[in-house]
Amino acid sequence: MSTALMARKPKRDPRTVAIAKAILEQYDCKNVEDMQDAIKDIFGPMFEAMLQGEMDSHLGYESNDHGPKSTENRRNGYSSKTLKSTYGDIPVEVPRDRDASFEPQAVPKRTTDVSGIEDKVLAMYARGMSQRDIAETVEDIYGFEISHETVSAITDRVIETAEEWQSRPLKKFYTFLFVDCLYVSVRKEMETKNLAVYVILGYDVNGIKDILGLWIGDTEGKHHWMQIFDEIKARGVEDVLFISMDGVSGLEEGAKSIFKDVVVQRCIVHLIRNSIRYIPSKDYKAFTAQLKKVYGASSLKAAEAEFERFKQAWSQYPGAIDVWVRNWQHVEQLFNYGSAVRKVMYTTNSIEAVNSSFRKVTKKGAFPSEDAVRKALYLRITELYKKWKGRPVSNWAMVRNQLSMDDKMQARILKYEDL
User: Does position 22 have pLDDT exceeding 90, yes or no?
Assistant: First the structure.
């Protein structure tokens, strides 16, 4: 007999079973809708019972206690309020006391929403839903209206948290930084402009991913990146082993002026994109497959041999070949390190995945302001953190071992390993 067939029905708390049976009998539930109506019906009395218990504790005596009292304060009727819940609107009678010192905890004063709707709105916004879509979804699922202004107000509360996150102290040491830029449309001064969003993804000494920050500027350029590197240094970063970046002129020299021992690696994905501009689309697959044999070779000698074959095979496209000839030093330096380290250096999947996640919320159209961009992307980052769960990147143990084979890098790692 299979394990599935032998599995026993889990035991339920007898009290829970008795309550469920009583509700079913009292409300004659026939389907899910009936059960939801029943739950909605008892939701209010449950809240009121909790509030009565809180009032008993506050006054020091129960409602029908006619004995001597230790306080002059007395019950003073009720105030009515309607709570928004996941089952719809629930009317509740909140007990009052004469000196108005009662502060209910189950339903705090001025609270009218117990549905946890704010967290749900933020989650929907983080997944790229528009304010209109969120408002319609809330009404469809929870049965009460929420205005676009309310959605905006809820998400605006994230801005302060995002600013704190952006200015938080950073770790002193990162093994890898991946820097990239994406563009978003923002409405400014009666026109729509494309603004650059600068992104830095880091791996710490344990291979844990972190996004160091988001910066918004008019265009991507060396001077803006220099300001960003200055900022992350001011926020605590003292040393970086590797930085992977695209080919902004002067950026490599600028990065080394701030982190003098860093190895700057041109992003292989950007080089591929630059070179296929010269290739007919029908040849993309064959072209990139042969390129991978070059940067993915087992040794520098093998890479050089593959590069010669590559140049001969695609000689009819000199523009594409020239991209790799001009940047050959960045392919060569890959082979100063073990294969696991090389793969991290040339595989930009991590930063590409981050940007892909961002595009899920930026593709919906122009943003009304830069703050709207910041809150949307920050909420997306919180989703990424949940997904990463603080785990190291794949094959990190091998990467760490291969880094330790370089004495100078090992010394730098050990300096910060216990921090």
Answer: no
What's the half-sphere exposure (Cβ side, CA atoms, 13 Å) at 293?
A: 15
Distance CA(211)–CA(244), nearest Å, equals: 14
The per-residue DSSP string of 110-138 comes to: T--B-S-HHHHHHHHHHTT--HHHHHHHH
- Asked if 22 and 41 touch (Cβ cutoff 8 Å), the reply is no
Separation CA 28–CA 37 (nearest Å): 11
- Asked whether the beta carbons of 97 and 55 are under 8 A apart, the reply is yes
Signed CA dihedral, 379, 384, 386, 392: sign only: negative
- Whole-number average pLDDT of the chain: 84
pLDDT band at 4 (very low <50, low <70, confident <90, very high): very low
Angle at 323 between CA 321 and CA 276, to 5 degrees: 75
Going by C-alpha positions, the residue among 300, 248, 252 that lies closest to residue 274 is 248
Is the dihedral angle over the CA atoms 66, 69, 73, 79 positive or is it negative? negative
In 3D space, the residue among 398, 342, 393, 46 whose CA is nearest the CA of residue 204 turns out to be 393
Structure tokens at 5: 């067939």
Q: For residue 25, what are the CA distances in angstroms to 13, 36, 144?
A: 19, 14, 29
* Tokens encoding 362: 């930026």
> Amino acid letter at 144?
F
Q: What is the largest CA-CA distance in the chain?
A: 102
Q: Is the pLDDT of residue 5 over 60?
A: no
Using an 8 Å Cβ cutoff, are 403 and 241 in contact?
yes
**What gap in Å lies between CA 306 and CA 286, rounded to an integer?**
14
Of residues 44 and 177, more confidently modeled: 177
Backbone angles phi, psi at 183, to 5 degrees: -115, 140
Instruction: For the chain, count helices (H), then strands (E).
Output: 18, 7
At 138-174, the pLDDT tens digits run: 777 666 677 777 777 777 778 888 899 999 999 999 9
DSSP label at 7?
Answer: P
